[in-house]
């Protein structure tokens, strides 16, 4: 049975992932109807950052909750953060 801390950690991760996924979805949706190129580029940037933060928080949640610390996990984490 998971502890209270891991349950809270998972719930917080779920909130972060859903929030940034929703922001990325709307940024990519709004991008289609914008006329000026600068605004489309900004909407694309917001969408990409939302996807990046979802990927980063998912990776960190899995890596921290399982306690994995092999070389490959460290390399992938370094690439995501860098």
Protein model, in words:
It is a single chain. The model has no long low-confidence stretch (mean pLDDT 81). The longest helix is centred in the N-terminal third of the chain and has 30 residues, at 4-33. The chain has one domain. The protein has three helices and no strands. It has 82 residues and is mainly alpha-helical. The termini are far apart. It is elongated, with a radius of gyration of 16 Å. The protein has helices at residues 4-33, 37-66, 71-81.
Note the run of SSEs as H and E. HHH
Oligomer: single chain
Percent of residues in beta strands?
A: under 5%
Main sheet record: none
- Label the structural class: mainly alpha
Mean of the pLDDT scores? 81
The helix count comes to 3
Could you say how many structural domains there are in total? 1
Query: How many runs of DSSP E, i.e. beta strands?
Result: 0
Give the CA-CA distance, first to last residue.
35 Å
**Nearest-angstrom radius of gyration?**
16 Å
Low confidence ranges: none
Helix content: over 70%
In one word, what is the shape? elongated
